[in-house]
Each structure stands twice: as C-alpha cells, then as structure tokens.
Amino acid sequence: MDNRVYYGQYSLRHWIELIIKENITLPAYQRHFVWKEEDVKKLITALKSKQFVPPITIGYFKEVDRSKNLILDGQQRLTSILLAYIGCFPNEKKYKIKRENIERFADENDIESETESEEEIILDWTLKALIAKGKNKNDILEQLNELEYKKIDFNINERFLNETFLGFSYIIPNVKDEKQQQKFYTTVFRNINNEGKPLVSEESRASLYFLDKDLVGYFNPEFCKKLTVKTGGKADFVRYISLLSQYKKDGNTNHLAKGFASKAKMESYYEKYIFSITGENGTEIFVDFLSIFPNKEFKEKFLLLEKTIDKLDFPEYQFTTIIELDVFLFGVIYFVLIENTQIDFNKKVGLKKEFEDACEVFKNDKAHSKAPSALKYLKERIDVSIEIVRKYAS
Prior knowledge:
8 strands
C-alpha cells in the first residue's frame, strides 16, 4: 500500500484548537520566528480578502509509545494565526537576536552573506512559549508579561475565525518502523527545503536528520563549538567529514565535490552526504558510512578526536580565517576518524609549526586569501593538511 496523503481545509478556529491542545506540534529542530507584526497583519488581510494562502503540511509520525502530528511546513503562518487570536506579539527587546549571535558555521569566505539583512528581525521564540502559558485564550492572557509580549488588536472576531478556512495536506507514511519513517520524512523535508528558502543552512540540514535520534550528535557535535573563526561561526563538521569521506573513497582530491563548485551547490553536496546516511543505502560519491563507524558507533571516536584537539592545544590558537581552521582540522579529522590513527603528541611542536607555515603560504597568496571557498584552493588545503599530519601519525 502506498503512502497516503489527505487534503482538506480547517477553519482558523480549528487550527487554533489543534495548536493549543498540542494535537499538532513543531519538530524537535526549531526555526526562529522571523515574521514581523506587519507580516502577521498582511496574513490576516489576505485571509479576510479570500486571497490564496499556501496550505499547511502535517506529517504523521508513529513512535513506540505515542504518535505525533508534526508541522512540516507552515510554522510561520500558524504562529501568526495564534498571535492574532491571542492579540499579542513577542517583544522584540526581549526576544530579538542578531544573526551573528545565532549559532552558525564558519563562512567559507570569511565574510557575511550578501543575502542577510541587518534589519531582519529574528526572534528566539516559538509558539511553544505561548501555549505553555495556558490551554485557552483567557488563561494565556492572564499569564502574559508586558516585558515579554505587547498586546495588539489584529481586528479579528469569532465569525472570522469560524468562517475563514486554511488548507492542509496530511501525510501518513506506509511504514511503522521508526527508522523507515525517518528515511521517508528525510525525503519529505528535503523536497520542502528545495521548494522554500530556509533561514540558515543549519536548520535546513537538521530537518534531514532530527528524527534519527542516534545521529543528531553525529552531524552537529558539541566539540565543534570551541573551534571558531574570528569573523564568527564554528567548525562545520559535516563539511569536513563529507569532503574527507569522498577523499577516502577516491584516494585523492582530483574529483572532490565535482559539479558542486558554487556556495549554493556545496550546501547541496553537504546535504547529499547527510541524505546518503539517513535516506539512502549508500552512494557512489562517499565511502560507506558504516565502514568508518560500524553500527553507527561514533561517540568513542569523537571523544578521541576531541582529546587529540585538546592535546594539540588547538583552543589556544586564534583562528583568524577559514584557511587556518581548515589546515588545522582536515588532516587531524581524517587520520583520527577515518584512518583510525593516533597523532604522536611528542612531536606536536613540529606539527604545529608546519601547520603555521602552510597557513602563511596560503594567506600570502592573494587569490587564495580572497576566495578561500574556491574549490581549487579548498583542495589545496585538504592535500596539504593531510600530508602534514601523515608525517606525525603513529
């Protein structure tokens, strides 16, 4: 029997009841709320004018002890409807965060994205914070704090809520095993992300693996948080491990990330790596994941990698550019995680000196330092980093 998809529409009143009673919930990974008051008002105006508003996508997910209805697409719209109903909006002074304060990956060109707007409002808040205050409008209003929320009259009434409808698609996969559901929804999330514009790459990737609880810590390990560059952002583990997995399979960088030269395409390359583990049975590009981490057991190797980084005194370095971060990390990650080889710490002074010398060469190359994300320069850093560490691998 095929996967089932049901289509229909609910009144805004029914959508609100589903949200407040938590019959539909947000996925474990969260997107920040990015709509402004004006956006909420525009949505209400569109609904009042009977304009087309994209439908909500809900997915059924069965766990051992319970089932969930996950909001796959439409979080901003449903959140706005709830805010309009309650008559409030999160206080920007309380919840507003700057993009540079959002945990993100180091930019491959060490510059801010041209698509990011300094005026864009991003709130560290989701609808969960509001429904936690009560199970009906009056209870929620009684709990509202003016420091957290400001009251706004969005000019809606009961008739509007009862007579205005918003469409939906409801997906029920024809699989009961959690792992199979994970693979199915990985594909669904991937297609949704391809159609929409995700806020940041971290959220787009998280949507591909968050249902597989065994792998969340693999794709976004804690130790990367202390490996940062001066311009902001932490080491992107998926970037390193995907490139090195292809390097392991090919034995060189000749065809590394071939066909994925631009920044946008490289993100597709990283997602392809994630998808090869969570949604497919292997791939022709990367070495088999289970050959590196049998039975998906990666925690001990990660612990060894973290200890290796600490013993090499990486944290004492000020990584000023992605060039430095790459030269220091590619070789170490490759030998510790992929080749199962330890570093000779008795020779770490010489190792670090070679790292520093290589960084200076690359940074003094104006073309390289100006465009470090260029694939030919990325390949150079990978080759040099691996060859340096090879001398010190015991």
